[in-house]
């Protein structure tokens, strides 16, 4: 009140309604990574950590270069990417359909919500032995494991996103006799898109985790199998090279999803 009373007539008022709009700094991100690598390298160089158990960044980079030049890295990575892509696509497609049905129809919600609540907490990698018995040791069981892991977070993201769309928008469309299909495609799904994109981030990370776990259990090729073999042979530089590839893959996928969010959610 005192500030208002002392303000001169006609003086500009500071805008205080900007909302929460946190930004990002690429310089800060790069500096954090560089700082971590420098501390890591210094710890190895000064003998604080044994390189047998944790190789230095220089050794990891050398192993990564050798694996790239020999083609071994690409062979394993390409197999893992096919498994991730197929499993994520199947799980996402099914999750979008089921989540939308649960958000729009009473029967689907009544049946689906308790089923999802009961099955989602089950670790999907624990089902891999059972899926191998049902589907065989080949690619189908691994793809099914990834698809199951992707399915549930996608269902929850789609269901909650559509359910949180402002009801006033839907009621207004219904009052103007807008067809049900148009309400879904032009109001419900676009309004739920932020939640769906957040679900995609979770499901992609889940797919990366599950493909590594599945390949460690029942595969002879793939990044997970490569990391497991390197660990068994105490080749920690190659093991960390495989882990580094997974980290880089996660960064690439995260950047792609950020670009998609900026393109699809520019209206926010």
Q: At the first level of CATH, what is the class?
A: Mainly Alpha
Sheet of most strands? none
Which descriptor suits the 3D outline? flat
User: What number of domains?
Assistant: 1
Query: How many β strands by DSSP?
Result: 0
Spatial gap, N to C terminus: 34 Å
| pLDDT averaged over residues | 86
SSE pattern: HHHHHHHHHHH
DSSP helical segment count? 11
| Broad structural category | mainly alpha
Write the CATH homologous superfamily.
MetI-like
Instruction: Calculate Rg over CA atoms.
Output: 25 Å
Instruction: Please mark out the parts with pLDDT under 50 across 5 or more consecutive residues, or reply none.
Output: none
Helix content: over 70%
Question: What is the strand content?
Answer: under 5%
CATH-level-2 architecture: Orthogonal Bundle
CATH topology: MetI-like fold
Give a written overview of the molecule:
- The protein has eleven helices and no strands.
- The chain has one domain: MetI-like fold, CATH 1.10.3720.
- The longest helix is centred in the C-terminal third of the chain and has 39 residues.
- With 268 residues, the protein is an all-alpha fold.
- The two termini are 34 Å apart.
């Amino acid at each position: 009140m005192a500030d208002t009373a002392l303000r001169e007539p006609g003086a500009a008022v500071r805008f205080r309604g900007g909302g929460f709009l946190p930004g990002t700094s690429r310089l800060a991100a790069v500096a954090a990574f560089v700082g971590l690598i420098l501390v890591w390298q210094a710890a190895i160089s000064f003998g604080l950590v044994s390189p047998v158990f944790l190789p230095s960044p220089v050794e990891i980079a050398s192993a990564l270069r050798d694996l790239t030049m020999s083609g071994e890295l690409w062979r394993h990575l390409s197999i893992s990417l096919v498994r991730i892509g197929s499993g994520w696509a199947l799980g996402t497609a099914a999750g979008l359909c089921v989540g939308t049905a649960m958000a729009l129809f009473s029967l689907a919600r009544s049946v689906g919500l308790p089923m999802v609540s009961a099955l989602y907490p089950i670790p999907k990698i624990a089902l891999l032995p059972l899926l191998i018995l049902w589907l065989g040791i080949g690619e189908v069981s691994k793809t099914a494991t990834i698809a199951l892991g992707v399915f549930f977070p996608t269902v929850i993201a789609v269901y909650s996103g559509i359910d949180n769309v402002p009801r006033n928008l839907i009621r207004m469309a219904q009052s103007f006799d807008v067809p049900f299909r148009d309400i879904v495609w032009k109001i419900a799904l676009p309004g739920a898109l932020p939640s769906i994109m957040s679900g995609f981030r979770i499901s992609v990370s889940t797919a990366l985790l599950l493909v590594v776990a599945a390949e460690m259990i029942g595969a002879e090729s793939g990044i997970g199998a490569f990391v497991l073999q390197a660990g068994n042979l105490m080749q920690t530089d190659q093991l960390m090279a495989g882990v580094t590839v997974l980290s880089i893959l996660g960064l690439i996928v995260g950047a792609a999803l950020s670009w998609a969010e900026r393109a699809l959610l520019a209206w926010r």
